[in-house]
Design goal:
By secondary structure, the chain is α/β, with parallel strands linked by helices. Helix content is about 45%, strand content about 15%.
Amino acid sequence: MSGNNILLDTNIVLYLLNGEETLIPLLEEKNLFLSFITQLELLGNQNLIPEDILKIKQFVSECTVIDITPGIKEIAISIRQNYKVKLPDCIIMATSLWLNMPLITADQDFKKIDIADLIYFKR
């Protein structure tokens, strides 16, 4: 994958949707990717109003959503076996590793995974 590609963690998308402008320079001219897990987490919230759903769907449509593959499953299993990380986070990190692209996140749990190509965002 090209150096212009980046996988966004769910918290980063939420920050963007809520107007966190400091993220814009980090993501300018990048090809944005999401794990299907992020898509599910964003749209699976029971408290969403129709305007929020539309905003999320619009943002997701501008990204490439990566579904689970056998390769991602194998990497996620390995991460789960070796690190104390929640399963959704394992799948997101496995997606980053499988695509060979960095993951941008604000979740400190990812710092436990020493094999990660991580861009840690701190507000």
